[in-house]
User: Fold this.
Amino acid sequence: MRFGVVVFPASNCDMDTYHVVDQVLGHPVSYIWHREQNLDGFDCVILPGGFAYGDYLRAGAIARFAPIMESLPAFAGRGGLVLGICNGLQVLLEAGLLPGAMRRNDSLQFRCRDVLLRVENVRTPFTNRYRTGEVIRMPIAHGEGNYYADPETLAELEREGRIVFRYCSAAGEILPAANPNGALGNIAGICNRRGNVLGLMPHPERCSESILGNTDGLGIWQSILHWWGAAREQEAVRNV
Amino acid sequence: MSERKPDWEEMGLTRTEYDQICGLLGREPNYLETGLFAVLWSEHCAYNHSKPVLKLFPTTGSRVLQGPGENAGIVDIGDGQGIVFKMESHNHPSAIEPYQGAATGVGGIVRDIFTMGARPIASLNSLRFGDLSDPRVRYLFSGVVAGIGDYGNCLGIPTVGGEVFFDPSFKDNPLVNAMSVGLVEHDQIRRGAAAGPGNQVLLVGARTGRDGIHGCTFASEELSEESEQRRPAVQVGDPFMEKLLIEACLEVIAAGLVVGIQDLGAAGLTSSSAEMAGRAGTGLDLDVALVPRREEGMTPYEVMLSESQERMLLVIEPEREQGVRRIVEKWGLEATVIGRVTGDGIYRIRDGAGVVAEVPVRFLTDEAPVYYPEVSEPAYYEERRNWPVAETPVPDDLNRVLRRLLADPNIASKEWVYRQYDQTVMTNTVVPPGADAAVLRIKGTRKGIALTTDGNARYCYLDPYRGGLQAVAEAARNLSCVGAEPLGITDCLNFGNPEKPEIFWQFREAVRGMCEACQVLEIPVVSGNVSFYNETNGEAIRPVPVVGMVGLLPDIEMRCTSQFQQPGDTILLLGQFRPGLGASEYLAVIHGVEAGGVPRLDLAVEARTQACCRSLVRGGILKSAHDCAEGGLGVTLAECCIAGRVGALIDDIPVLEEPREDNLLFGETQSAIVVTCAPARLPLVIQAAREHDIPYLALGSVGGDSLVIRHDGGRIMINLPVEEMESLWRESIPSLMA
Amino acid sequence: MFEARIYVTLKEGILDPQGKAVKGGLANMGYQGVADVRVGKFLVLTLDSPDRRQAEQSVREMCDRLLANPVIEDYTFEVQEASS
Assistant:
């Protein structure tokens, strides 16, 4: 399975994400420069965290017009996996690959701390190694994580089970006190209808090694590999 | 016709200095040339008042790869790797425009790191403000923190530590000392020398505007009402551009395309180019007409003195130009050839065809006058030292005192600050803010580095020599507590107007104290910065030398933090316990008195105590270690309980000769570390203490959900639930800033 | 040359925490009569275009595609001849 990490000007977490795939998972990974347009050969494309284009105008607003973003919809259409982390999610929202928009945190301040997330949907390629309702801990580090979607869109997301992670309390309750940024519905991560495009604000690449004190993020990478392995198995069975 | 000040005076030169310039040149300098001298001979660039004193610092050692004199210092950490680090002040700009002042402070210091070929991996900052009850202070505080956060977060460099203090003397003169740390492979180290006549000089990065012209002379003066009008002197930062610069410069350096490289900081193109030529012993021929501008009609003077941010100066061999251009333009940046290196030692500036300035380089870089200011011990010194501290009444309710101290902004949690900083980007942060020192891993190795900043303004005011001594010792002690061996120091020396004898006395004494500690503890100073003229309307700040220190953990798994862990763990105090009320936070906060003798420091005992602590941490014998600082033993124990969310029973404190309970609990001492271990390992701890020939005290055990401190003999002095202590400590600053 | 002055504002009904904070700040300063504050963006574009109509068309496209996020923002603009 080949991973690609997109690098926009001023992406920051590209190296962190590359490190996890390369050193922790031991899988082939390359950087994809934002001017590239060819995504052939990749199975999972990651849009990493950072401040692409300084987050000027709106986070992700300028990045979404980068050449690489022209090829991404077709890649997703073919069933390729797309994972947007933090700034990556903001880019996916601006590009319309996921619905809704991000606003400034309601505190009007940047927030870097651990949050608790409830895993709502374990049927995606990114979450199949978690249990439904499992509470996991992940760090956030953002100034614009206040998710908004209009009521129809929100209802649709709910109905279709496309809200994948929500900020929650230690007991797994969806409470305002557990919400670090004002996001509607405590929404921390969502996916597309097909389930192959996921975006989340917290940083799984920062909690995938025990030396960093938290490995709750490993489940996302393991899920991806598991889904890939299962898909390869199915293909093998079909080809027999 | 009204009197007009001569240009040289407007620019900050003295009559004597101007005459000296005329003497050197054999003629009068023109307007531009006067401007060049004015900035290069300013305090900020030339250290005229401080040079002789700074020479006292020990700057060499087996681990020193680069000492003072370059853009940053470098220490060796083994495996062909080095740590590049430096601290710098941006006090004056932050007083006028806190957000941009602090942001550009971060930008400037980060450039000093990657210009050496190092990838910046961490930031720290040491901040001081006035009393938080003052709305303007809250404005400065929130502006500075937001500025540091927004700029640093966008760069993707974690801010992992620092300190924040509040004292009325900083009301109009906040201190913003920014430290940057980078990792470099030995063969990637580059220096700021314009070597090789015929080589090209390239300007890379932002276009040049009128930002901050004479910003460094502004830093060399006291603030007054007029300063408010000079808001245009504050530069605006663009962290996006800087992030691109980091990537482009590191790539260009790694490709071996660069002869010399330096960032443009104070005094812009002038200081950067002159210093590069000075170091190489060469000359430069620059054409201002070639410098890309973002404003119309800029004069050569304005171009040379602009402090527009996010610009780098590269010296390259001509055949490398295409290679450099390819990389720089890939990152969306501009690179412009603006001149060349010559062999004649002359600093020549053209504007198109005509020469507009021509001065020997070394007149600018080596001939700045050095001053030996008068020194005079201030009247307050003896007076405060001999204050009858013993006459201070002992409060009845010590619980109440501890509650107040935990809520004191100088002691309370700084989470309100650091939750605005990205502390974990780059995924190297193993011990985040909140501990004695930050610890970062070095990927691909077993090593870790530890980082801290320390300084105590009250100690330095009351006894500058002891204050300087203590700043170095405490930084080293903080590193030893996490298990790191101190490798080197960077410093920011913040003082008032050095032309006043009492202020220069503070400066000289503080440096003298620092030097003594550096020598005995064997920690060299590899870089640093002096910030003078921190005064408003004649009132100086409390003097504070801030020490930034880097340490090495050979095995990052063998580290320690401050929290109490397991009920039943034994609590001891390692080192010397000689509490005194003098100069303590307790005396200031509870009794409103800033006086008394600053705690004595026996450097030999300090060195042995730290060595003992390090060896115990590395042997995996300790469960926690936390040094005794502001607030004394009582506060230190409370902090350990709060961090570990568990109580403690302290019932073994021996009766001291002077059994004042407030002194026992809140008196301050040096060279004391509170540690815990599993009861079974206690003999190992005692053995280590004996082997290192340091005193130790059994204090009690971890357990329960309250901190209970009982005098030997049974009287309970402190009994506070940990939850209550935590709440006071955690909520203090957020509620003041709400 | 034309100059376009563009106002980008949050859609009605979208929570504006910045506006709320500014309103609170004004109240603290003693301005009790401020009923509401909404914070938006103001952009000035200098653009080369054959005529005003085409300039307006371009600006509209730019707003729809980049300058405003249609999920949460509305925009208005004025186009006039650039002075000098």
